[in-house]
């Protein structure tokens, strides 16, 4: 028997600083229409999909910072996405900047949600591995201020039973940390959906763009293989106000193979039939965690944050 989810990886091209959410949502609705014509059951949008990648800009005025955040989800601007989900019978993943009141305090997270075919939010994740820095760094060719604008996610790494399988989420830099996917793998995850905004160049070195492209795919393909899960990684790509973001949006099988990949840096949809039963063999053999893992030797992974060098 097979449990197929027809997945649409919906890459977004550049969103300029001056572009408003309504025009971005229009672009996303067009991708959903295209996906519907192709029989897509789940469409995956990028990280921070509604706006330009604003952590590249140094801001001191909190009111200005807050213009990049959503105070409600759905909001007036994003409600059409939820309606399209119901109209098309299509679930979606959306990354956005979340501003929320909790226990009488305001909190701000880099967040992603999974919405089902009925338009209900079934899962939420808040980014745990925040890259970059929290103060203006004149040594960098451009800023990456996620540690300034977001709090560390407080929901942990979770999975949800939806669309006939076990789905998980992470966000961008999380994909570079194997702990992310092992925490999901230990919950039986069969498909991890994630968005990313990855500059094509390194603000601190002359690292080549082809190496950045390699690291993006290496991280996701290794994660898929080592946890026998599908991984869907979706870029916000293109040139945003002079800043290049890489594409490379990919749908990756539990064997670590790329089964579909975008080839532009614009708005582009790639589709694949993802059989969740393709996860079974790896989970029952080479990555049968119960049979093969030796947690009595892994203590450092959770007891130690940084490196302890030998004498
Ligand atoms: N972006 C980048 C990412 O992890 C980065 C930041 C790039 C970190 C390359 C390290 C190396 O893809 C986000 N938004 O996390």
In short:
The chain has 311 residues and is α/β, with parallel strands linked by helices.
Nearest-angstrom radius of gyration?
Answer: 19 Å
The chain-level mean pLDDT equals 98
Write out the CATH superfamily name.
Carbon-nitrogen hydrolase
Q: What fraction of the residues are assigned to beta strands by DSSP?
A: 25-35%
- What hetero molecules are in the model? D-[(amino)carbonyl]phenylalanine
Task: Assign the structural class, choosing from mainly alpha, mainly beta, alpha/beta, alpha+beta, or little secondary structure.
Answer: alpha/beta
Secondary-structure arrangement, i.e. CATH architecture: 4-Layer Sandwich
Q: What is the total number of structural domains?
A: 1
Number of strands: 14
Residue stretches low in confidence (pLDDT < 50, at least 5 long) are: none
The main sheet comes to: 6 strands, mixed
- What is the straight-line distance between the termini? 56 Å
The quaternary structure here is: single chain
Spatial order of the strands in the main sheet?
5-4-3-2-1-14
């Amino acid at each position: 028997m097979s449990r197929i989810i027809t997945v649409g990886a919906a890459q977004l091209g550049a969103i300029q600083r001056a572009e408003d959410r309504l025009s971005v949502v229009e672009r996303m609705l067009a991708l959903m229409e295209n996906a519907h014509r192709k029989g897509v059951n789940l469409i995956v949008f990028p990280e921070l999909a509604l706006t330009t990648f604003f952590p590249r800009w140094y801001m001191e005025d909190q009111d200005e910072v807050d213009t990049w955040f959503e105070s409600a989800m759905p909001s007036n601007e994003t409600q059409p996405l939820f309606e399209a989900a119901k109209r098309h019978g299509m679930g979606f993943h959306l990354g956005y900047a979340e501003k929320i009141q909790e226990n009488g305090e305001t909190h701000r997270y880099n967040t992603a949600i999974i919405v089902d075919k009925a338009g209900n939010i079934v899962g939420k994740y808040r980014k745990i591995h925040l890259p970059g820095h929290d103060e203006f760094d004149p040594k960098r060719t451009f800023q990456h201020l996620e540690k300034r604008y977001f709090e560390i996610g407080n929901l942990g790494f979770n999975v949800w039973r939806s669309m006939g399988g076990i789905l998980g989420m992470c966000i961008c830099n999380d994909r570079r940390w194997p702990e992310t996917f092992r925490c999901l793998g230990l919950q039986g995850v069969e498909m991890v959906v994630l968005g990313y905004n990855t500059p094509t160049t390194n603000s601190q070195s002359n690292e080549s763009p082809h190496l950045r492209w390699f690291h993006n795919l290496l991280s996701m393909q290794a994660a898929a293989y080592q946890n026998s899960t599908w991984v869907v990684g979706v870029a916000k790509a293109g040139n945003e106000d002079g800043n290049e973001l890489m594409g490379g949006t990919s749908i990756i099988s539990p064997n670590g193979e790329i089964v579909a990949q975008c080839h532009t840096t614009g708005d582009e949809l790639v589709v694949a039939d993802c059989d969740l039963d393709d996860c079974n063999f790896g989970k029952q053999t080479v990555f049968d965690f119960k049979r093969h893992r030796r947690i009595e030797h892994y203590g450092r992974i959770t007891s130690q944050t940084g490196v302890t060098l030998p004498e």
